[in-house]
Amino acid sequence: MSWALIPLTEEQREIQRVAREFALEQIAPHSDQWDRDAYFERSVIDQMGELGFLGMMIPEALGGLGLDTCTYVVALEEIAAVDASVAVAMSVHNSLPTQMILRWGTDEQKERYLRPMAAGKWLGAFALSEPDAGSDAAALSAQAVRDGDCWVINGTKAWVTGGNVADVILVMARTDRPEDRRGPRGISTFIVTPDMPGFTVGKKEDKMGLRASPTVQLVFDNLRVPAANLLGAEGSGFVYAMQSLDNGRLGIAAQSLGIARAALEVSVTYAAERRQFGKPIKEFQAIQFKLADMATRITASRALLYSAAAAKDRGEPTTQFCSMSKLMASETAMWVTTQAIQVLGGYGYVRDYPVERLFRVAKGTEIYEGTAEIQRIVIARELYAAT
Ligand code: CAA
């Protein structure tokens, strides 16, 4: 049930098939248990790396597949339809740290870090938020101070997806001096690895959903980062993070679509099998209307996502469209999974069917990589910027 108004190429259909079969064979049998146990299975990441799914948009010369954003979101939706926790690792890795090194890294940084990341040997993470700087990301306070041929970073990062299992973490920290604060222009990006002295994994969050995707705090106590690991220009880290989150938001839109589609598929099947008042419940208009609205919102969200991804691939400014895609797809996921539970009634409210898990993971998509409210702010700002 993966209809798209915008037709896929033959190559995209093939990658979609590979992603779907991999997810159904290697992930689906375990998803429920991993969710219950909040268990992260690294071997799945390794397998995705072997399939090229961790270097989808990295050029072939650096060991990636050299594909476009459109193909990436098609594959990501398939993984998310089976397990949104696995999809979030794929999304963060492909959209944020790898793209940042590709875009702003030196040749040496690309060889050293991006090549193994593109091959899926190393997993990437992105550390922007802090306990007191979430939506207001520019208020972050982790401080980096230059000391000889190192930067010394102190501070705590929060909500880091996969921060305890990642091999390479892109960390945003202040490089302006406390007496000369420069707001967003005082933030820089560093390539950090967990073996650097002063790196500690802090609290692991006990989340409502996406439980098989670990989310942690990272505590930096005089973390020593080689000066060569500054990414791009000093003071440009916030802009890099914002530009990268545009990519990330397309990934979360694809993830949301997968979640919504899975909930619709369960609902359609259930409504055909479940009999009440002497007939399958799909014959009641109350159910038909729900299924029709679910399918319509999913199809519209997918059309917006594919259009935004295509605009990005054409090199056009897409900040607004990325936020629109994330906003619409995440709210669609939340709405569709809510309806799915209603279609299944009591069976939707228990763990016998996957819609309960889908409902819990859908909520996360309205929050991370920018809440729905932040997406509306970004969209509204662009409206005024255009006038
Ligand atoms: N593209 C390019 N540049 C951008 C940009 C974009 N999308 N957004 C902002 N900028 C630039 C601005 O042009 C400005 O540049 P100049 O200094 O040259 O003028 C600079 O960045 C500062 O921008 P703003 O004045 O707009 O900054 P702001 O403080 O008002 O914040 C915001 C804007 C949109 C609210 C931003 O803070 C935001 O997106 N907040 C949400 C953060 C978020 O999504 N966090 C989730 C992180 S993901 C995570 O933590 C989990 C994980 O593991 C992945």
How would you describe this protein?
The protein has 387 residues and is α+β, with helices and mostly antiparallel strands. It is 52% helix and 15% strand. It contains eleven helices and ten strands. It has helices spanning 10-37, 42-51, 69-82, 84-95, 97-104, 107-118, 237-273, 285-313, 319-344, 355-365, 372-385, and strands spanning 124-127, 143-147, 150-161, 168-174, 187-192, 199-204, 215-226, 230-231, 275-276, 279-280. The strands form three sheets. A four-stranded mixed beta sheet has the order 1-4-5-8. Helix 4 (84-95) packs antiparallel against helix 7 (237-273), helix 9 runs antiparallel to helix 10 and helix 9 (319-344) packs antiparallel against helix 11. The longest helix has 37 residues, at 237-273. The protein is globular and about 80 Å long. The two termini are 40 Å apart. The structure holds acetoacetyl-coenzyme A. Acetoacetyl-coenzyme A is lined by residues 92, 96, 126, 128-129, 135-138, 159-161, 184-185, 238-239, 242-243, 245-246, 319, 368-370, 374, 377-378.
What would the keywords be for this entry?
387 residues, alpha+beta, four-stranded mixed beta sheet, four-stranded antiparallel beta sheet, 11 helices, binds acetoacetyl-coenzyme A
Topology, pairings included?
Layout: H1 10-37, H2 42-51, H3 69-82, H4 84-95, H5 97-104, H6 107-118, E1 124-127, E2 143-147, E3 150-161, E4 168-174, E5 187-192, E6 199-204, E7 215-226, E8 230-231, H7 237-273, E9 275-276, E10 279-280, H8 285-313, H9 319-344, H10 355-365, H11 372-385
The structure holds acetoacetyl-coenzyme A.
